[in-house]
């Protein structure tokens, strides 16, 4: 899932810049209004001066503010597909995948939240789940 507004994100190991729906690979370091700085290799310096590397799926608005990550689970053509940390992962019918927030996704379309409640995906339905917590 991609934001529908202008942003910068780490995607499949590359820093991309999306403006007006057009994605390009970051070619030179980018400095944001809040003093966040991101280099084409994914290294960054946060406004407080701390250095880090971007994780796949990590994204920022063009003002430098963080876009909270969301993972997604979709039932399409009878198959469960999970988008987790920026990667698409198809599940087989007997497979179970643990998500970052403690949710368990079953290959048969059952989703079990960490509080024990369950949901059964319907064909074509997508459910968003809290993505990774990016610490810096």
Helix-strand pattern, N to C? EEEEEEEEEEEEEEEEE
Number of distinct helices: 0
Radius of gyration, in Å, reads 17 Å
What structural class do the secondary elements suggest? Answer: mainly beta
Average residue-wise pLDDT = 88
Helix content: under 10%
* Distance linking N and C termini: 23 Å
Number of domains: 2
What is the β-strand count? Answer: 17
Shape descriptor:
elongated
- Which spans have pLDDT < 50 for at least 5 consecutive residues? none
What summary fits the major beta sheet?
A: 5 strands, antiparallel
Tell me the layout of helices and strands.
Blueprint: E1 7-11, E2 14-19, E3 22-25, E4 30-31, E5 37-38, E6 43-45, E7 51-53, E8 59-61, E9 66-67, E10 70-76, E11 79-84, E12 87-91, E13 96-98, E14 104-106, E15 110-112, E16 118-120, E17 126-130
Antiparallel strand pairs: 1-2, 1-8, 2-3, 4-5, 5-6, 6-7, 8-9, 10-11, 10-17, 11-12, 13-14, 14-15, 15-16
Quick rundown:
It contains no helices and 17 strands.
Overview of this structure, please?
This protein is an all-beta fold and 136 residues long. 0% of the residues lie in helices and 48% in strands. It has strands at 7-11, 14-19, 22-25, 30-31, 37-38, 43-45, 51-53, 59-61, 66-67, 70-76, 79-84, 87-91, 96-98, 104-106, 110-112, 118-120, 126-130. The protein is built from no helices and 17 strands. The protein has two domains: 7-67, no CATH class; 70-130, no CATH class. The strands form four sheets. It has a five-stranded antiparallel beta sheet, with no helix packed on it. Strands 4-5-6-7 form a four-stranded antiparallel beta sheet, with no helix packed on it. A four-stranded antiparallel beta sheet has the order 12-11-10-17, with no helix packed on it. Strand 13 and strand 14 form a beta hairpin.
């Amino acid at each position: 899932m991609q934001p529908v507004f202008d942003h910068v994100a780490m995607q499949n190991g590359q820093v991309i810049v999306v403006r007006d729906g057009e994605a390009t690979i970051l070619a030179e370091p980018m400095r944001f209004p809040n003093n966040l700085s991101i280099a084409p290799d994914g290294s960054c310096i946060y406004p407080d001066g701390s250095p880090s590397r971007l994780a796949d799926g990590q994204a920022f608005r063009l003002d430098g503010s963080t876009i909270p990550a969301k993972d997604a689970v979709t039932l399409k053509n009878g198959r469960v597909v999970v988008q987790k940390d920026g990667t698409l992962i198809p599940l087989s019918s007997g497979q179970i995948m643990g998500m970052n927030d403690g949710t368990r996704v079953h290959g048969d379309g059952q989703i079990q939240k960490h509080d024990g409640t369950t949901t059964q995906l319907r064909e074509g339905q997508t459910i968003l789940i809290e993505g990774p917590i990016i610490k810096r």
